[in-house]
Specification:
mainly beta, five-stranded mixed β-sheet, four-stranded antiparallel β-sheet, about 35% strand, disordered N terminus, disordered C terminus
């Protein structure tokens, strides 16, 4: 069970983490921002993500889903990009949401745009009647588990900000990893097509299995990401799609989708080194960007005749209007039974 520091004051929750290496901070199953609507999350036949296996739920607990939304109101602000990148000077904050002083040199990111903070508004912007009701719609489709048809697949999230480095005696175990989750992109000194910030990280894989799905998560300014072996053999490339207009799902300046990979199953062995590469345009600088790679790993391959055409897994979300930037985090928790349906704030 996680400690109180992990999950807040109540010890009655057990957060079910993804299988990735950075479980200290990157603990969710699924999380996307404005790219949600046009990013495919279909799980390829006959693989499936198993949820609510009675044999895995501790006695006295019940399974619950946690949905955490982060919305940024950009109406009337002085700098939309700066606001969506959570620049601290625009939010006029010097402490994080827990009242702790920001680290020296911290210019922007999730520690500066927490609940009830407001990005700086233009002079004269009328904010007397700013309350607005917005709705988020999401659909989850599932079928009852049938082990004669489905092959279990597990979610792994890899982070390019992982601080792990190989060393003598290192095993690559999760205790050796710490992820910063976000990072800054400094502007280049000369303008032009060569202004690209490249960040790479090589990690030892914590599993034996077959990669059957992959997709990257980037913020505005992102120009693509890749996952490849030590010898350069590509596993997955994920490219952003930017919006061009002002309609939901096609908001100009925002990433409205990331291309997903459905490769022929790629075998990966425990301890094998795989490299993440994330590219951002740095014609201008960026704060609080991310470089996450989501992969789905099957433990075994299907028999040749196995087919499950009718039981696709799909999660779809209805994106909100461009005036609001939304980041959605989905996680799974085991909760003690016979408690009120209220939740402590869980940090993901």
């Amino acid at each position: 069970m996680p400690t109180r520091d992990d999950l807040g004051p109540s010890p009655d929750y057990i957060l079910v983490r993804n299988g990735g290496l950075c479980r200290n901070r990157v603990r969710h199953y699924y999380g996307l921002g404005s790219a949600t609507r046009k990013t495919s999350t279909y799980v390829p036949d006959p693989n499936a993500i198993e949820i609510a296996n009675p044999g895995e739920i501790p006695d006295g607990y019940e399974l619950k889903w946690l949905l955490n939304l982060h919305a940024i109101d950009t109406r009337g602000v002085v700098d939309k990009q700066g606001c969506t990148e959570c620049r601290c000077d625009l939010y006029n904050v010097t402490v994080d949401e827990y009242g702790r002083a920001l680290e020296p040199g911290y210019k922007g990111g999730q520690d500066c745009c927490y609940d009830k903070t407001q990005c700086r508004l233009r002079n004269g912007f009328e904010d007397g009647n700013r309350t607005r009701t917005l709705y988020l719609k999401y659909t989850v489709r599932w079928v009852e588990w049938d082990s004669s048809v489905f092959l279990p697949a597990k979610v792994y999230i890899l982070d390019v900000t992982d601080s792990w480095e190989p060393s003598e005696g290192s095993t690559g175990d999760v205790q050796e990893h710490f992820c910063h989750v976000e990072y800054d992109v400094k502007p280049c000194k000369t303008n032009g097509d060569g202004c690209v910030d490249v960040k790479k990280k090589s990690l030892m894989m914590p599993f034996n299995g077959y990669i059957v799905y992959g997709v990257a998560h980037q913020h505005a300014g992102g120009i693509g990401a890749a996952l490849y072996r030590e010898d350069g053999e590509g596993i997955c490339s994920s490219m952003p799609k930017y919006g061009n207009r002002h309609e939901p799902g096609d908001e100009a300046g925002y990433i409205v989708g990331m291309s997903s990979c459905y490769p022929e199953p790629v075998k990966v062995t425990y301890g094998e080194t795989v490299t993440l590469e994330f590219n951002y345009s740095n014609v201008v600088g960026h704060t609080g960007v991310m470089g996450l790679f989501y992969i789905l790993v099957a433990q075994q391959l299907p028999e040749p005749e196995s087919s499950l055409e009718a039981h696709a897994k799909n999660v779809s979300f209805l994106a909100l209007l461009a005036v609001t930037v939304v980041v959605l985090i989905a996680a799974v928790v085991y909760r003690r039974q016979n408690r009120e349906d209220s939740y402590q704030s869980l940090s993901t």
